[in-house]
User: What shape does this take?
Amino acid sequence: MDDAHLQSAARALARSRRLVVFTGAGASKESGIATFREPETGLWAKYDPMELATPEAYERDPEFVWSWYEHRFGAAAAAEPNPGHVAIAELELLLPRVAVVTQNIDGLHQRAGSSDVVELHGSMNRFKCVPGTHAGFALSDFAEQTEKPPRCPECGAHLRPDVVWFGEALPADAIDRAETLSKDCDAMLVVGTSGVVYPAALMPRFAHEAGATVVDVNPERDALTSSATIFLKGPGGEVLPLLVAAVREHLGD
Ligand code: BV8
Assistant: This one.
């Protein structure tokens, strides 16, 4: 990664008064959580997440889709925030205002210490019944149930993860706040996203159109790289700690 690019990104972040950090599955890769578009290893390698994360798939075979999510709950529960998550949380201590807008459902930003996290696609730590009438359940609320998927303690309908599946609307409060933050920010740090899932992928475009400095961190070029101000090529777990150290230096200037 080019040091000149790192320094100009650090200068932009050090000067920012309203920073948004926009993350995708790549931000959790170094915590051992598979991304959406890189093939999984083992049992799930032959299944396409795009096919499984849909209401139709759940309707067709709730037990199978539930077991896919159980596999992912296990991976997320075993995962620890990686140095990238920790660096993002540290930015809150250095800068006047930092908000995280994530596409991820693993809760790792919160576990790393980020206190303002907008979960665009929901959370695998929350459950609701398929009709959507009852929500806010945790895994522990139905741990004793043996049936898979478990049933809603209130109405008996199947439970599902409170996540946004393809073809479903994003939670209005989350997308509204993400859009407001992205249009108002003066800098956006984009980490670990292919930038192909909408409407989430509009956020870096809103920031760019608002004149914010957009820094894209990814080992590969992605769909957002061309509209970014600065591209830092590399994994988040390596780049972000270097970036935050450089921000500290610029703040000390
Ligand atoms: C909706 C939760 C309408 C579930 C997910 C235009 C406008 C609106 C919609 C659409 C549109 N065009 C198409 C659509 C439909 C669709 C869509 O976007 N399809 C795409 C595929 C074309 N969008 C929807 O269906 C959305 N809903 O629009 O509803 C509506 C409106 C009103 C009423 C009814 C309906 C819903 C989309 C949300 C789907 N749910 N997740 C779950 O997780 O189980 S999305 C899923 O993809 C994950 O959240 C994931 O985060 C997300 C995006 O992928 P990425 O995060 O970018 O991950 P990916 O694997 O793609 O890339 C990883 C990147 O990391 C790579 O670039 C890689 O290089 C990089 N990387 C790898 N290692 C590292 C790294 N980076 C840093 N460090 C590393 N170490």
Remarks:
- The first strand starts at residue 19 and ends at 23.
- Residues 1-32+81-121+170-253 form a domain with the Rossmann fold fold (CATH 3.40.50.1220).
- DSSP finds nine helices and nine strands in the chain.
- The chain has a mean pLDDT of 94.
